[in-house]
Design brief:
This protein has six helices and 25 strands. It is of the alpha+beta class. It has a six-stranded mixed β-sheet, covered by helices on one side. It has a six-stranded mixed β-sheet with strand order 16-17-18-24-22-23, with helices on one face. The protein is globular and about 50 Å long. It starts with a strand and ends with a helix. The N terminus and C terminus are likely disordered. Bound molecules: 3-(2-carboxyethyl)benzoic acid. 3-(2-carboxyethyl)benzoic acid binds next to β14 and β18. The site of 3-(2-carboxyethyl)benzoic acid (3EB) has 13 residues, from β14 and β18.
Length: 373
């Protein structure tokens, strides 16, 4: 089973020496990214065969099963995230590019990059005595520093994974400490950072290191917010001393379309958690939120593309294993349930939240000639 979400390879050339830049809603001021990214879910057993079967270059492989099966793969970033899959056989997530890939390591960040994109992961084992706000601040500072120096200046998508998300550390919940450190780093590096925040997910793992995964590029993405929800970066202080620094989605446009990265989305309307204790209703509310973001994306780019809601690549984080069946039943009865879906066990940032869903949608764009006329 090859679950693939792929963006058409572009045959478009770029103007030599001109840095491509998106010029508002009217189009690219110069040549847009010609590289294409592809994300797929694969059965772990099919991995080696699959990696040889096409002309694409592997950027990153993410294993959610804690099995470290890929010691043989050297030319891409391989990551283990401790979020146990809820279905069998276990899957891996594969990020590919049409362009050649190189790997590197800078301090605690492992990296794989192409001409236009970098996929990286800051990873650190937590030590007792060091609080999570400190570690998350350092992680974000290092990532910002790397992105600035390398020229991959624009964060497009981030994932934050660490254990015991809802446990207290010195009198404050670990997720809230994480938000403090992330906020400090953003505030120190960027003025008015709301306009550059990437879509993100934050999910509690079953153990393992503190990890911040990121996708960054040489061209900016466009942050989108959800009209049904208050922006997370404007949440009131009842949810923590510093608000969560992320956008509801990032729209990333390239020559032949691009991608819409939808952040981890939960049963929150305004800023309030909805349907406490009811996983089915929380799933419906979450899907309504995702629909609202997809509509924002359509509205933003109607002159260039359509977004087919049944063609997403979705990851569903479920807090309690015994509620997985209910969540899946609701999703399978919804239009969004026609996409490629993987379910994993993970903790959400608020104890009352039972499910969180993230997704990637390709933007089907007009043909080459129409963009240029
Ligand atoms: C929410 O909407 C749900 O702190 O990076 C979702 C995605 C959530 C990302 C983060 C938190 C984060 O507030 C939780």
């Amino acid at each position: 089973m090859d679950r693939q979400l792929s963006q058409e390879n572009s045959g478009m050339g770029s103007a030599l020496g001109v840095s491509p830049e998106w010029n508002g809603a009217s189009g690219f001021s110069s040549s847009p990214s010609k590289e294409s990214l592809t994300v797929t879910y694969l059965q772990a057993a099919d991995l080696s065969q699959e990696l040889e079967s096409d002309a694409l270059h592997t950027l990153a492989i993410i294993d959610y099963g804690c099995r470290s099966a890929f010691s043989a793969i050297g030319k891409s970033l391989t990551l283990e995230v401790h979020l146990p899959p809820l279905t069998q056989p276990p899957f891996v997530e594969v990020w590919k590019s049409s362009a050649p890939v190189l790997c590197d390591r800078v301090q605690d960040i492992r990296l794989a990059f192409t001409d236009e994109f970098v996929f990286g992961c800051f990873e650190a084992v937590e030590h007792s005595g060091k609080e999570l706000d400190e570690l998350s601040r350092v992680a974000y500072e290092r990532i910002f520093e790397y992105c600035t120096r390398s020229g991959f200046s624009h964060l497009l998508r981030m994932w934050n994974y660490f254990p015991a998300m809802n446990a207290e550390q010195d009198g404050l919940e670990r997720y809230k400490r994480f938000c403090i450190g992330r906020h400090q780093a953003f505030a120190a590096s960027y003025q008015k950072f709301a306009s550059i925040l990437p879509a993100a997910s934050a999910v509690g793992t079953q153990g393992g290191p503190f990890q911040v995964l990121f996708l960054a590029g040489k061209q900016p993405g466009q942050p989108l917010e959800n009209p049904r929800q208050i922006s997370a970066y404007e949440y009131p202080a009842i949810y923590g001393p510093k608000s969560p620094s992320f956008a509801r989605a990032t729209l990333h446009r390239t020559a032949r379309g691009g991608q819409l990265f939808v952040a981890g989305t939960a049963s929150i309307v305004g800023h309030a958690t909805q349907h406490q204790g009811d996983p089915a209703k929380q799933t419906i509310e979450t899907l309504t939120n995702i629909d609202a973001i997809l509509n924002r994306g359509r509205h933003e780019g109607s002159e260039l593309w359509d977004i087919n809601c049944s063609e997403g690549l979705l990851k569903v984080f479920v807090r309690n294993q015994e509620e997985f069946g209910v969540v899946r039943e609701v999703l399978e009865g919804h239009e969004l349930g026609k996409g490629h879906i993987q379910y994993v066990l993970g903790e959400m940032c608020r104890k009352e939240l039972l499910v969180e869903i993230e997704g990637i949608w390709n933007l089907a764009s007009l043909p080459h000639e129409e963009i240029h006329n």
